[in-house]
Write a structure and sequence with these properties.
Elements (H helix, E strand, L loop, with lengths): L2 H39 L15 H9 L3 H7 L10 H14 L8 H22 L21
Length: about 150
């Protein structure tokens, strides 16, 4: 093999290797971003864990809202063991939100945390208030109407 052909071959092989690595890295990044976006949007399949199994309602809320029940209760200074009634949550929320008003020297960041805490506790109330749908027993098939009786 002559020297110019060998050089061109080496350049080509190196270029393909570099392009292949860059493509693989870009694909990994795009897949990770798509998974994050799907989880944030609440899209179907976003409430699946890493193993593909469905998450418990509380875990799905943690993932969707980005805040745990413990953290939400701490922020609003409420107990989580028996969930407080909605009016108590709203009372604490309104007080904490007003106390952290930026016009009064508060913080928008803390106001956001207070809002997310209220949202998380209200979502938990909705989930726990939902009665389980009873499973209807399968009824025996009725005779289909047919015009040809024997």
């Amino acid at each position: 093999m002559s020297a110019p052909v060998k050089l061109i071959t080496q350049i080509l092989v190196t270029g393909v290797q570099i392009f292949g690595r860059a493509f693989a890295d870009a694909y990994k990044t795009a897949a990770a971003n798509a998974a994050k976006q799907r989880a944030a949007s609440g899209e179907v399949g976003a409430d699946l864990g890493n193993d593909g199994e469905a998450l418990a309602p509380t875990d799905a809320l943690n993932k969707k809202l980005g805040i745990t029940l413990d953290e939400a209760a701490q922020i609003l200074n409420l107990t989580k063991a028996p969930l407080p009634p909605r009016d108590e949550i709203l009372k604490r929320y309104e007080y904490m939100f007003a106390q952290n008003d930026p016009a009064k020297g508060g913080s928008i960041y803390i106001q956001g945390k207070v809002f997310r805490a209220k949202e998380r506790l209200e979502s938990e109330l909705k989930v726990t208030a939902m009665p389980e749908e009873p499973v209807q027993p399968a009824s025996p098939p009725s005779e289909p109407p047919s015009g040809n009786k024997q």
